[in-house]
Specification:
By secondary structure, the chain is an alpha/beta fold. The chain contains 9 helices and 6 strands, in the order βαααααβαβααβαββ. Strands 3-2-1-4-5-6 form a 6-stranded parallel β-sheet, with helices on both faces. α6 links the parallel β2 and β3. The longest helix is centred in the first third of the chain and has 20 residues. The radius of gyration is 18 Å and the shape is globular.
Amino acid sequence: MKSQIKHVFFDLDHTLWDFDKNSGLTFEKIFIQNNIDVDLKDFLMVYEPINFEYWKLYREEKVTKSALRYGRLKQSFEKIGVTVEDDVIHLLSEAYIDQLSTFNHVFDRTFEILDYLKGKYQLHIITNGFEEAQEKKMVTSKIKQYFQTVTNSEMVGVKKPNPKIFNFALELAKAKANESLMIGDNIEADIEGAHSVGMDTIHFDYKDVHNNHSFKRITHLKMLINHL
């Protein structure tokens, strides 16, 4: 693979940018600011799978951006038995988006790996995240300068795993699919999506829970050195 690949595409959330950690810190901050009396650990335990499911629905065009932002909070509060008024949920959903990108934690060895790769390959981002938020995340966490191009779903009008977003990203990068590699945490959106247009793939399974597929898989970013 090393001799053939010229372009390496990364997902952002859950792949380079440590979404779970930054999200937890954001909720801690906005709950204190808005006097929301919940056990943060209990809330995050139900929020994370609910958020995952909402993003799946969003990728499939079954919910809107605003429905995702409201619904994941509403459902999480209901599941832990805490009553929060709708106007407060809307306020929290806006505060969450405003504050999330102010936190800058990335996965262990992110800078080391990006420094290692930047001299060998052209690096790019393909993300389903919202344009304004993703830009801020990359700037705040000081990783933006590593990437030649950034493709997000709002630019293209479709989301991963739709082939259009991968083809758009390849065209923007002036890259051929058979010379390109996609690295991401989501098997459906990142790996199967990229595979469908002829890109090579590496699944970043940072929770080490998906070992039942045939795609190349790593559980830590440092393992990329074995492949690239």
